[in-house]
Structure formats: structure tokens, C-alpha cells
Amino acid sequence: MNHIINKEGYMYHNRFLAGVVAVLWLVVILWGIKPPDAVGEVIAQDADMGVLLTVMKDGTGDGSVTASSGTITWNGTTGTASYAINTEVTLTAVAGMGSRFNGWVGCNTTTDTLCKVTMSKAMSVIVDFKTVTKKTKKDFNNDNKSDIILQSSSTRDVAVWLMDGAKKAKADYAAKGVPENWVVKTAEDFNGDRKADVMWQNTETGDVYIWLMDGTSATSGAYASTGITSDWQIKAVGDFDGDARNDVLWQNTQTGAVYVWLMDGNTQKSGGYVVKSMQPQWQIKGTGDFDDDDNFDVLLQNQNTGDVYVWLMDGTSIKKGDYISRGVPGDWQVRAVADYNGDGKADIHWEDSKNKGSFYVWLMDGTDIKGGDFVKPKGGSSHEFQHKFRQMTENSSGSGTWDMKSVGDYNGDGMNDMLWQDGSTGDLYMWFMDSTTVDSGGYADQGLPMDWSIY
């Protein structure tokens, strides 16, 4: 029969239905509606519209994030980008000035500052940047510039120079006539107020005493410990637990044992052995934050082989230890551990003991040497300074009379500088560093009496 009866009992003729279908197809064509056989194409086009990648910045610091493909559009600390399904994207985090990268969350895989995601669906990742707490050496007045502490061996007076580059912003006595059996061991911040304090030790009793300082004045003082036996010696200080307070690293001269006091002002809040014995050929050369985790680390060298090794520290524990280099020639001696390029990571300053005036800096990244060069004047530095540099470093000019006394960021640019003294005249001269080059220099003092020692 040429009739169709629907479920309600109405009857339609086949020719009528054919007419209706023809009209519907005409509407489909005129309005651009896809016919049923194009459904697969519609699905493909929907997939090409993309899936969303969301990047969120977190933490106390700041930085930037770039993608290997596509463009991230930012609205405050949240960025978005759209990608075709299954696109592989690599994100790169770069910390801003005064910040450091602190990690990724939500990535498929991570490698250092890289985050890799496969956009099989909408993805959200978080990048964390942390504010770097600047730790300026020997800064007595919290102006982010290192200062100089001196003591006279004849009068026993103690003086502090508050520095602004090579100029003294203020110079005053911190004390006069200190008893001869008390000696300055170091000057760093022990109570977390960002002002250097002074640690003393009694050479007869072993007692340790700390002055808490405010500029050139001691605001208070107290014993940190009494009766330390002479076989325990202070080797270095540094903030080993990241609490913005310097701690004290001791070593036993008989056993080689290394012990750390974790400090809070004049008080030892805790402490512990780092190692209970160590072979005598291994010597502690300095401390500094090599991996930018806010904890100071320990640099060691084997005096027999020249091998250089680092303990990456977490409080009193070694979280990782590794060789930096092996077989360094014995003529080369570590002179300082300090951040010379302002990346928040300690570097290593070497001097050739046979060729006085020859210096080299390793620029470090954890236990890896990422760069380095001989120390030399920066291109474009003044002719006057270049002449002074040659005078201080060339053997024919009497470079043997100059000796580096201290390092610190004297001009507040985030890069440590070098303080030198002429052993024949007492003159003090600064090199202002920019990575491995010396940008400029200047006299901090001339004719300083030779009974004054710099700490």
C-alpha cells in the first residue's frame, strides 16, 4: 500500500512524505546546516577549536612563563592559551629580579624550570616563585651594603665603618680597650634583624660571647657558650637552616668531626653533628648557598689531590654531596666563597699562589661549574682604574704587597666585591665586581696603621 499509518492512527501518503523530505533538504542547503553524513567533519572541527591551558603564578616572588608554541594571554597572575587536542607544550619559567623559581605543580613531567604537558584535555598548572632574602655580608646598618669591622692590636679598640661603596658613610668605635684574651671571630647577623653582630671568643677559657649590634653600637650581649675546649675551632658561619640567622660551623682538630650550632641571637636553639670524623687531608674552605635554596652549604678541598667537593646542606644534615672538580693544581688556592654575578648562588674565587695577581672565578650552579674566567677589568672601565688594576696584579709592579682581606657587597648591587690592602702602605682598595670582571674600583682608606686588622 502507498499509505503509512502512524501510532496515533493518522494516515499519510508516501508522495506527501517525499515532498516534506524534499522541503527539509532545501532548508538544510539554504541555511548551511550540515547533513547527517558530515557529522564526523563537525566533530573534527569542534576538536580543532582547542583545549585550554591555564597557567597560574603563585608564591611570594615573581617571574615570567613562556610556551614552546602558542601565546599565553595574561590577566594578572593567571595566563591562558588554547591548543589543538594532543599538542605537546613545554613551558619555561624565568624568575624575576629578587626572586627565584621554586617549582611546578600539575605538569606531566618537569625538568628544572621546564614544565611539559600533553593537551589531551584542558590542563591547569601552577608555577611558584619565591622572594630571595638578600643576605649581605657584614651589613651593620641594614642598608644592603657590606661594612668593615677592624680592631687595633695595640689599643684593642674596635671600630666599624659603615660603607657606601668605597666611601665611609659613618665611622665610629664599637668599643675601646677590649681585654687582650678576647678576639673577634666573625661579624654576621645572628638574630635575624638584618644587622651584623659580633662574635667573640676568649682564648684562655674558650667562652663564646655575642654582641647584638645596631649600626656601630652594641645593644646587648650574652654568652653563647662557655668552656669550649681548644680542640674545637670555629671554621665558618652561615645560615644553614634558612631562618635568616647565621649559624656556627665548628670542627674538631683531633677527629675532624664537624658540628653546627643553629643560632637564634645569642642562644643555640639546636645543633648537631654533620659528620663525626673526617680525614685530615680534607679541609673546609668556606660556606655559601651554592644551590639557591636559602641554606648555606660547605665547600671542601682535598689538600693531597686538589679535589673540590661540596656538601649541600639542610640544617645540620648533608642532603647531597658531590665533586665540583678533581685534581686542581696545588698552586691554586680558594680565597673566597661569594656570589659574584648576583644570581643568588655562591661562586668560588681562586688565586694562583705562585703567580701573585692571577685570579679566577668559577660561576657555580649547585655542584656544577656553569662558567668562569680570569678576573680582569671590564671593557669600558676607566683608564685610571685599568692602570691601578695592573699595578695591583702585575708582578713587575709589586703586586705581592697587595692581599685580599674581605669580600662583601659594598655598593649594594647584589654582587660581592673585593677589599684589598697594600701590606707596605696600609692602603685599602676595593674592586667592584660584575661577575668575573671588575667594573671599577676606589680607595676605602689610605695609610691605615698596620696594627689595625680587618675581620
UniProtKB/TrEMBL annotation:
Signal peptide positions (record): none
Protein's UniProt keywords contain Transmembrane helix: yes
Residues passing through the membrane, by range: 12-33
One matching Pfam family: Flg_new_2
Protein keywords: Membrane, Signal, Transmembrane, Transmembrane helix
Domain Bacterial repeat: 66-131
SUPFAM superfamilies in UniProt: Integrin alpha N-terminal domain
UniProt cross-references to Gene3D superfamilies, sorted A to Z: Integrin alpha, N-terminal
InterPro entries: Bacterial_rp_domain, FG-GAP, Integrin_alpha_N
Entry keyword Hydrolase: no
Protein name: FG-GAP repeat-containing protein
Organism: Candidatus Magnetobacterium bavaricum
Taxonomic path: Bacteria, Pseudomonadati, Nitrospirota, Thermodesulfovibrionia, Thermodesulfovibrionales
